[in-house]
Design goal:
The chain is an alpha/beta fold. It has 9 helices and 9 strands. It has a 5-stranded parallel beta sheet with strand order 5-6-7-8-9. The chain has a 4-stranded mixed beta sheet with strand order 2-1-3-4. α3 packs parallel to α4, α6 packs parallel to α7 and α7 packs across α8.
Length: 248
Amino acid sequence: MKILDAHSHIGKCRVFDLNVTEEDLIKNMDAKGIDAAVVLPFPGADPQPPVDVHNRIANLAKKHPSRIFGMANVNPHIGKDVWKKEVNRCIKDLKFVGIKLHTIGHAILPNSADGMMIFETANSLNVPVMVHTGLGIPPALPGMVIPAAKKFPNLKIILAHAGFNIATGEAVTVASVFKNIYLECSWCMGGDIVWAMNELGPERVMFGTDLPNNTQTELVKIKEAGATSEQLEWYFNKTGSKVFNIKL
């Protein structure tokens, strides 16, 4: 069974005091049996836009073809024109596969003007939006994506961390109403992930790690929670591959 990590990072983060290098990422993937990863800058990348980190991800993807796939993560408060220029470069030139809306890291309400600009741009570029949920409420409440899910019914919206335990119930409820919403379940409890797959179908739920030192926990807890072999196949590979249009 191949494994796609739908949520990982490289670079420095001034919000959470983190730093993950390319070597850290690849070494961890090799050690833990991760076949491919969607990689993005941390929200606290400095300066903004994080052109350098995006370029590092693109170079890493060239070095590891079919294994590393980029996602743009730019603070929209830097200005609409600057934001759009870098995001378009990432998607069109660097061939990134998605756009991140980081509610807590960039102080964005998903239903604000800047937030809706992200959804609108992703919809026009035909790539999914991943939205940080859980820590940092109320902006990070899963229900904050409802206006975008209604306005852009064909846009795939991924709830990163699926509410981060504290709002997992809301994440599952929102996704049960809007079929264009998917859950990425890093930092959730194993039992809740299985519950989400039972409620929504395994094709709506995907695996992510967020950080290298969280990988082993994420790999083990879903298996220990009693997921079926079919659920595991969707969770570890098929859902993320479908949403990001990735072939492993």
